[in-house]
């Protein structure tokens, strides 16, 4: 990413967030669905923004996903995203659908925009009905809060968290047609909310000028190598959603793949998604370390991605890294069952800067040095398959006692 | 299985083992590859036995797998299987292949049989060369031990274990053409051996009369619903192997699918494999419980199997069961991402006798009763998809602190 960032002149905005791109405001509020913490957030755009989204591949999908799909399908435009935490509104049948429509309607009314300009998202407990009255009260109050600029993005970020331990935001800028284009984002990750599974939500904003269909194409392309490359425990939730809104207020020439700076737009969007994805992986339940696997020399990029995901998803690799054990045997094993084309006799593996395997055979290395490296917080694993030019990355976290503790904990 | 066993008159033999079928003997010996425990085992058949095998799908395959494939490919007959534990002879290149051939040659010589009547199997550390001299010494002594009948199967079983906590054996009988046909088996399971991954090995014996090609067909059919339906951590090792040998000494009419009792043969073989598979799952690393998932109402058996495996493979489900939490939300979630055809609105879920979900919606149940049930050692999960007649089972174990402890433990 760093090389790409340099060659495409993409720069991070340290204090930036999803309200840094022109046209966006946000807020977070406490409605009482959760006992103490903020539990309802909104992103608002002063103009109808070109919008695109991707959703969980789980065949059991929560009610709000249906409503968001319906909204975006109509014009490809959104002006508001309303998100509650504490309750996922999943496995809630007809009433769940009605509740999600109610969230949309109330948000549209308070912001005085068409209903289909509103997306709805939920995360939290499965199989319980929303306390819809509390949420309606929250929606009625939340518009006023979007006028308060101080800490607005932080409050939105906090409102969408479940057992996440940190807020996750990203902001990058680049130049297209001589105009500054800003990308912002907020995400919640793989914290389990009692009593159910982890959900990944990400909301991206930009002031780039782009039509919905091209925004969807860009998002699809970028998702595959960012959010689809992280794993905490292999479970795919019922609520996973990534939404991107583009206000167009940067006034660049409308972006399509015929635009000479299309690639720069793609890399900037990818950079923003990758940062959020890495923050989600690092904050996996019970995690103490971020693991990044880079695979090169695959027959193609898809195969490289398969190997990277297979390694970073292996409980045996994850446990070994928790235990600071340079266990390359588990890494080659996960390479072998990844489904990618490989030749066992041409595989090189390095853990950080320490090479452990060459041409499929172990080579001597300093266990002490390896242990020292594995005691750090950002672990890199490099695999070279020596078959072609395919390259891919994936991110995950270590498997710890705390993962078991968090997920074995009986519901209170 | 129980219903099938009754309708096909298949009976367990309590004290039986892989030497109960006519023609087989076995032994286990300590060669010094492991410090204290038995580490070399042999199964010997007094006649060339029709043989078949299946192997790991991992593209990184240990050296002995190549040698066993070569042996069986020649005539489909085996008279001896030599197995060492403590070292997997994987990622050992040319020298590993040579060592595995040496094991085959030495075994053939001592038993005075052709080399291609010998299969070779290894389990243990990856990436270290075999201490082949110790193993050769062991092979030279092991033939004499096959004459000792007392505890022979137990000693073989022990010699193939790694971090398994119990010996795993099975024995069943049925009647074909009025003759008693016996099936025996031994397995090692999902104990990790320092410093590498779990390996599954299973060796089956029978005195049925059957040609190699039909034995292979039977094994393929049975493997899919037994050994391929267990999971401990989703990692597939480089050494996984299942071998079956049929001495023919029961003198039934040669079995093919045209034989009127072919189905009985299949069910008896399946019953033996299923018992070994369940013992492997129950003895997964750190496990305190066996989990069995039964799925019915799928569009077809394949889909039922997908759902069952997805549930039993979910870290979130496994952690919840460790924590005695009747977390049906994680079960429906794993159903949704299984890849099988499902309708979220027609799913029923029961945990033991306690129904928690009907038509995709939660129904009230006694948490106390559920917790009591989940504190037992054999956990049943029932899923009904209400779409068709497809049925399938899968087995696994809970995810515990001890799994992490065992797998994070630094290599000594």
From TrEMBL, chains A, B:
Q: What Gene Ontology cellular-component terms does the record carry?
A: cytoplasm
Read off the Gene3D superfamilies from this record. arginine biosynthesis bifunctional protein suprefamily, ArgJ beta chain, C-terminal domain, L-amino peptidase D-ALA esterase/amidase
Top enzyme class, one word, equals transferase
A Pfam family of this chain = ArgJ
Instruction: Give the matching InterPro entries.
Output: Arg_biosynth_ArgJ, ArgJ-like_dom_sf, ArgJ_beta_C
Enzyme Commission (EC) number: 2.3.1.1, 2.3.1.35
Tell me the domain of life: Bacteria
Please name the GO terms that the record assigns under molecular function.
L-glutamate N-acetyltransferase activity; L-glutamate N-acetyltransferase activity, acting on acetyl-L-ornithine as donor
Instruction: For this UniProt record, give its keywords in alphabetical order, as a comma-separated list.
Output: Acyltransferase, Transferase
Enumerate the Gene Ontology biological process terms: L-arginine biosynthetic process; ornithine biosynthetic process
NCBIfam families per record: ArgJ, PRK05388.1
* Full protein name: Bifunctional ornithine acetyltransferase/N-acetylglutamate synthase
Organism of origin: Anaerobacillus isosaccharinicus
Q: What is the lineage of its organism?
A: Bacteria, Bacillati, Bacillota, Bacilli, Bacillales
């Amino acid at each position: 990413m760093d090389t790409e960032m340099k060659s495409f002149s993409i720069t991070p905005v340290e204090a930036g967030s999803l309200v840094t791109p022109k046209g966006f405001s946000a807020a977070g509020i406490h409605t009482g669905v959760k006992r103490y913490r903020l539990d309802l957030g909104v992103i608002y755009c002063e103009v109808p923004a070109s919008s695109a989204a991707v959703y969980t591949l789980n065949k059991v999908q929560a009610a709000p996903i249906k409503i968001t799909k319906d909204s975006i399908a109509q014009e490809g435009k959104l002006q508001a995203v309303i998100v509650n935490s504490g309750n996922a509104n999943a496995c809630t049948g007809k009433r769940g659908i009605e509740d999600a429509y109610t969230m949309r309607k109330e948000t549209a009314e308070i912001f005085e925009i068409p209903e289909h300009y509103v997306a709805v998202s939920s995360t939290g407990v499965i199989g319980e009905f929303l306390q819809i009255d509390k949420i309606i009260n929250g929606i009625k109050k939340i518009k006023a809060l979007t006028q308060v600029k101080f800490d607005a993005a932080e409050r939105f970020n906090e409102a969408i968290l479940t057992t996440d331990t940190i807020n996750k935001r990203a902001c990058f800028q680049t130049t297209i047609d001589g105009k500054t284009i800003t990308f912002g984002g907020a995400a919640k990750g793989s914290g389990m909310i009692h009593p159910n599974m982890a959900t990944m939500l990400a909301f991206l904003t930009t002031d780039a000028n782009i039509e919905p269909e091209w925004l969807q194409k860009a998002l699809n392309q970028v998702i595959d190598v960012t959010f689809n490359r992280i794993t905490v425990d292999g479970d795919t939730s019922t609520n996973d959603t990534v939404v991107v809104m583009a206000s167009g207020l940067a006034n660049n020439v409308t972006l399509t793949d015929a635009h000479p700076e299309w690639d720069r737009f793609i890399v900037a969007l990818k950079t923003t998604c990758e940062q959020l994805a890495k923050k989600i992986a690092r904050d996996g339940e019970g995690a103490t370390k971020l693991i990044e696997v880079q695979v090169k020399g695959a027959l193609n990029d898809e195969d490289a991605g398969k190997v990277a995901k297979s390694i970073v998803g292996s409980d045996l690799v994850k446990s070994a890294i928790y235990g600071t054990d340079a266990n390359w045997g588990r890494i080659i094993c996960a390479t072998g069952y990844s489904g990618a084309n490989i030749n066992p006799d041409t595989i090189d593996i390095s853990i950080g800067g320490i090479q452990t395997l060459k041409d499929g055979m172990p080579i001597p290395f300093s266990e002490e040095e390896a242990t020292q490296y594995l005691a750090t917080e950002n672990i890199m694993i490099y695999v070279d398959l020596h078959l072609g030019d395919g390259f891919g990355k994936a991110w995950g976290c270590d498997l710890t006692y705390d993962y078991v503790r968090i997920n074995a904990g009986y519901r209170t």
